[in-house]
Design goal:
Blueprint (H helix, E strand, L loop, with lengths): L1 E6 L4 H9 L5 E7 L15 E8 L2 E7 L4 E4 L10 E7 L4 E7 L11 H10 L1 H5 L3 E6 L15 H10 L2 E3 H6 L11 E2 L7 E2 L2 E6 L6 E6 L2 H4 L8 E5 L9
Parallel strand pairs: 1-2, 7-8
Antiparallel strand pairs: 1-14, 2-4, 3-4, 5-6, 6-7, 8-12, 9-12, 10-11, 13-14
Helix pairs in contact: 2-4
């Protein structure tokens, strides 16, 4: 099973073949345009799709390029920008929260504050099944200003309490704030980089973790100012996803 998060920086209709080539079972795409704007005319269209956003040019897309299907939980909280709860219909079902955190009128609630709020709103959803939380969090250990509700450190601590760990940090052994593989490059410049995209997985999935990769900037900066984070697992049982 392969999970991917990637902020495509818009114009996904032109860029999707790069993601499709990875054949993810589930991909969360931030800054994705609405499905009505994507013709898939380059072929290799996804098998399952969902999109939500307040502007047709920018939102969150959720896609599968395999037989893995999913459904978005009805009545999700649209006041959180953005955290979308998803039920994945695999042989062993699990939950996903697709994240793209944004600014807020109250700066204290921006970015990691939105993700922190989502943990409270969706606590029962998270605890009711194995849950993966992945996306563009727009935050790391070094960026949180004082006074923010749910700083990155507080967010990470709450995720840990819920039994979730960062797949990247587990696989690399690196400490938060000292990542050697950035996921974001401001202005697509390698000298202005940071690690702000994450895949948080249940700690008991560690034994089936096959690989964790951040896309090569030399390849992905041609498409976006973000590189994808790709996490792959070996099956728990033959012919089963997780």
């Amino acid at each position: 099973m392969k999970l991917v998060t990637w902020n495509c920086q818009g114009a996904f209709r032109r860029k999707y073949p790069a993601l499709a080539a990875l054949q993810p079972d589930l991909a969360v795409v931030q800054e994705c345009e609405s499905l009505e704007r994507i013709s898939w005319k380059q072929g290799n269209a996804p098998t399952h799709t969902f999109w939500y956003g307040e502007k047709p040019t920018r939102g969150v897309g959720i896609f599968s390029w395999t037989q893995t299907s999913f459904r978005v939980k009805e009545g999700f909280d649209t006041s959180i920008h953005y955290a979308i709860p998803v039920e994945v219909e695999a042989p062993i079902p699990f939950h996903v929260i697709a994240v793209w955190t944004m600014k807020h009128a109250d700066w204290r609630l921006a970015y990691s504050g939105q993700a922190y709020r989502a943990l409270g709103v969706y606590r029962e959803f998270i605890l009711s099944a194995d849950t993966v939380i992945l996306g563009d969090f727009n935050s790391n250990q070094r960026t949180a200003p004082r006074g923010r509700v749910g700083s990155h450190a507080v967010l990470a601590a709450n995720l840990h309490t819920l039994g979730l760990i960062s797949a990247y940090h587990f696989a690399t052994g690196e400490k938060s704030g000292n990542e050697t593989h950035p996921t974001f490059f401001h202005g697509r410049k390698t000298e202005q980089a940071g690690h702000i995209d994450y895949v948080f997985i249940p700690s008991r999935w560690i034994r089936r973790l096959k690989s964790v990769q951040v896309g090569n900037p030399g390849e992905w900066l041609a498409y976006s100012d973000h590189c994808p984070v790709m996490v792959e697992f070996v099956p728990k049982y033959p012919n089963r996803m997780v």
